[in-house]
UniProtKB/TrEMBL annotation:
Keywords: FAD, Flavoprotein, Oxidoreductase, Signal. Residues 65-237 form the FAD-binding PCMH-type domain. The keyword Zinc does not apply. This is FAD-binding PCMH-type domain-containing protein. One of its GO terms (molecular function) is FAD binding. It holds the Pfam family FAD_binding_4. The lineage of its organism: Eukaryota, Sar, Stramenopiles, Oomycota, Peronosporomycetes. Residues 1-26 form the signal peptide. InterPro entries: FAD-bd_PCMH, FAD-linked_Oxidoreductase, Oxid_FAD_bind_N. Its cofactor is FAD.
Amino acid sequence: MVASVSGASRAIVALCSLIAAQGGFAAAAGAQTDVGSCLTKAGIENSVPTTSTWTMDTQPWNSRVNPVPSAVAFPKTEEEVSAALKCAAGAGVKVTTLGGNRSFSSMGFGRNDGALIINLKGLKHLEYDASTQLLSYGGPVMISEAANFMWNKHQRTLPHGRCPDVGMTGVAASGFGTLSRASGTVLDNIESVRVALANGSIVDADAKQNSDLFWGVRGAASSMGVVLDFKIKTLAPPSERVTNYTIAFNSSYKSTQQDNVDALVGTQTWALSKDNDDLVSIRFSLKTKSTLQGFFYGGGAQANTVLGSLMKNLPASMVLTTNESDFWTSEDISTPGIAKETLTPRRYFYIASVTIPRSTPLDNATAWELFTNTAFAPKLPDASASGFVDIWGG
């Protein structure tokens, strides 16, 4: 299971921050000038602090985390990516890439001051090979773009996260969605990559060639090089019909903190049991009247049996409601805005998360503390707090 909490409260000290502390890296003197001049000489479009578009070019999605780069490069070819990497090496600055710009921790801007940002918008591509059933993509392709492309043109789907405007390059590192328990994450489905290395060379990697690089890219790509292309396996929908469900306390019932703790621990009990089915996704929302929402990839009697086994572990005051739909409708429910390719406005927030392994599950006391510091915490005058627990694994 994974718990995630967002908001401005500093009381949640037990959770691990996704956002690294700022600092620890200072650009070398003259790095901005050196990098900018080198990029210009190489014929690469770029932006530096004196450029009129600098503010827009360096604006992260989470406005709370604002690293200041030394320069931004806008390569249009693989060769220009290589040249930009050589410019960074010559100036002694670190490099990061910007794809969809939807990072919770502004990772596309280096997370610390002084980096060269390689904006990959000029290398955006999205192609499908029907003979191999592989999707090839690179640059700032959003989840919604890839999902719509595969469904509308090829009646297939792909593993992805829950936010429609997150970049597919970013989600390839660790993104988790409703299909992930049954079909794995994007990372699990990567077949090959094309990478520009720090020395400027460009190589292809898969399970047979450059296999050590291929292993490293699947989870630590940002430390390996600039990934120019991913090829990932696509999927047939796991079922034609999908059951969307909600489990909530009866509307007339006033739930206590212990009721909510019992619901969370009961959900965990089911997740650790033989009744756990990989075709079920669960998102447990941490509220004063908590809810479980998700999908079962199937319908009818099969859905009733699996969800019924979950209900047996929950407080008697909780009620199950279901609705059956086709696969694509369920995609637009699980990832709101995916069909219309909706963009999410910039936000200012703090987020933290922790993984709860099977070997050390939540006990009553820890679950109580989680609710105490989230749903039942004192309300803040100028911020709101929210949190959820996902069931992972499969």
